[in-house]
Each structure stands twice: as C-alpha cells, then as structure tokens.
Amino acid sequence: PVNRFCAASNNRTGFLCDDKVTCIPASQVCDRVSNCINGEDEQEELCGDLPHSLPGHLVFYCSNPLVWVYADQRCNGRNDCGDCSDEMGSLAACPLCGSEWWNCSPVLYEYCSCVPRRLCRDGVQHCHSWSDEYIC
C-alpha cells in the first residue's frame, strides 16, 4: 500500500494524492467531492466501509469507540466527538489553548476548554463562568 500520510495546512493530518504533491486535509477524504486530480480521495476502495477502509492516520476514535472523527478534527477547538474527547484528555493529547484562544472550563455550546478570543466580550456567554465576557 502507498503511504499517503502528509501534513496539510496548519500541520493538520492529510491525505497525499497520486500526484505526490497535493495534500488534502483528512476531513476532505470521502466527502463526496473529488479534491485530488484523479479523484482517488473518493474511491470505493477508500470510502466503502468508513472508517475501517481509511488509513489509520486519517481517523481519530472518540472515547465512545462507536464514534470517530477525521484526524484533522482532533485538537481543532471544536467538540466534534460530542463528549470533548477529541479536545481533552489523554486520548487526544492536545496542547493547551493557544494565544488565539481563551481558556475556560467548562465551556458551553460547541467548544470544550477554550473559546476563540474573537468571541470574548461579544455579549454571548461561552464560558460557564462568564469569564469570556468579563475577564478575557
């Protein structure tokens, strides 16, 4: 089998197309849109039995083993697993909030432990403690 691992934008896990140049983010594989010139990112062999038919580097299994997300959705700040296991804990092994993020846990809505700083003082509560509106 061909090694199709590559690093897409922002060092996110990617899929290397047949041209050996184009690297698409993992979450664009099997999304019903051909991102590789020859369409190899949408082939039945790759997409026929998701997630089992995908190369392991493209898949992240959530703490509930029946739930999975694409590897580039791990540590992206959003609660893609539904239980924050893709953002917090030993499975995900994410770095602490970056400079573009405000750390507050627990977080309400779609985030887990950090909210984008652009949401600070926007009049909407994102942190359980309201720190995104009063401290951030």
From TrEMBL:
Residues 95-134 form the LDLRAD1-like C-terminal domain. It comes from the Eukaryota. SMART domains: LDLa. Keywords: Disulfide bond. This is LRAD1 protein. It comes from Pedionomus torquatus.
